[in-house]
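Entry 14. Structure prediction run on the chain below.
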Amino acid sequence: MKKRKLVTALALTSSLAPVFAYAEPCNVNFNYGVIIDQKHIRILDHDQTYVQINNDEQLFIRGREVALNEDQTALVNEYSSGIRSQVPQIVSIAIEGVEIGLKAVNKVIGGLTGENSATHRRLQENFDEMQMRLRKKFNHSDESYYIAPQDFDDFDEIFAGEFEQEIEAIVSESIGTILMAVGEAMTNRDEETIEQRVNTFDDKIETLGNDLKLEIGTKANQLEKRAEQFCSALTHLDAVEGKMQATISQLNGYNLISSEKRAYE
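Output returned:
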């Protein structure tokens, strides 16, 4: 089997981590950090709580409760409910996006070296550790989420960029070991000639590649649709935020969500 063909196949799979390459741009920003738990939403300005919403109805600005009328309470409830719905969505999208790339690389390496081979197990340990760090990046638990201030225009750069580079590094560093494992597997096969062994592994790589393109393409399309829905929902929340600013004077100057739509209003 040709080394160049194997290296090319591995490099291809390591570049599959970004799954939003063709998604529509999301021209929405979070200007502050957001922490969510079961009872509270906290909006952070330089690690200090700027706005806090308790139980989806009580509003606090810089630690002071703001008295709300019925209409204002309804706006705060809609806003709070929307944030509670959308922040977990983007955490889920981010984690699943990177995991698609990890699974792709893992599937190819497992297919080439054998499931549960020493090489495959070592790489799986690296990938498991990477997934844990990804979840910690969002302080993600069953009841708590954290999102830092950021621009959602490029999902790949925000959530997958650093992990994509790490996936590529892990695969690059492991190519020698992978080649040795593949060589041993080929030597142990029962085909009569080297040419038959080479052809068998070439066919295996081609089949793996085709399966991955179909699997990754389908999952990526699903994630892109979810990302577009998330962006649309944030744009709506930006409009709700505008109504809150207009009717609650204490929110003058507060602007968690910035969208292209609001910019042109």
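Residues 3-32+69-255 form one domain.
Filed with the rest of this week's runs.
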